[in-house]
Amino acid sequence: MSWYSLDPVDESFFETADHRYVFPIDLDVPPERVWESLQSDRSVADWGLGVQSLRWTSPRPFGVGTTREVVLPLKIMTVRERYIVWDEGSRYAFEVYEANRNFYRRFAENYVLEQRGSGARLTWTIAVEPRPKLKRLTDLGRPLNHLAFGQFARGARSYFAKHP
After folding, report:
1. Residue 17's domain is classified under what CATH number?
2. CA–CA distance, 127 with 103 (Å, rounded to integer)
């Protein structure tokens, strides 16, 4: 399998990327339960169709610099992620530093977890910058991307309703 390097990001990318998708997800479970799931061996792979499989490639305890490898649905793409933020119990963010497809120049995700009444609000942000040759296609595909990424939010609600 060939690997393509992506450019690094910093936290400002979550505000400045041309393609940002933000999903606030209200869940009827305490934030501690969501955090437990986020850092589990299966993590978001348990939440639905958004992730086929994942493997943490750093030992516990996790923190900034932790890495993992994620296979997306139908093996469309495999990515290697590196955590750039790890605020235990409340937030983590990662950048994709390598992918087996040459689609993106930069790609990152941010997960913010807050108490909301007796439950939790998870705000999930995806920020992407496509390779220049794919910019127009990515621009045209924005509604479809929003719909596809939104499946993750629906999956999280369904998962925690069944696994409080």
Report:
1. 3.30.530.20
2. 14
Give the distance, in angstroms, between the CA of residue 4 and the centroid of all CA atoms in the same chain.
Answer: 19
Integer angstrom CA distances of residue 21 from 111, 119, 137, 154: 12, 23, 16, 14
- pTM for the complete prediction? 0.95
CA-nearest of 97, 92, 88, 122 to 110 is 92
Check if the beta carbon of residue 31 is closer than 8 Å to that of residue 115.
Answer: yes
Q: How many CA atoms lie within 13 A of 67 on its CB side?
A: 8
- Structural domain that includes position 141: 4-162
DSSP result, 102-117 = --EEEEEEEEEEEEET
pLDDT in tens, 76-95: 899 999 999 999 999 999 99
Question: What's the pLDDT band for 75 if we cut at 50, 70, 90?
Answer: confident
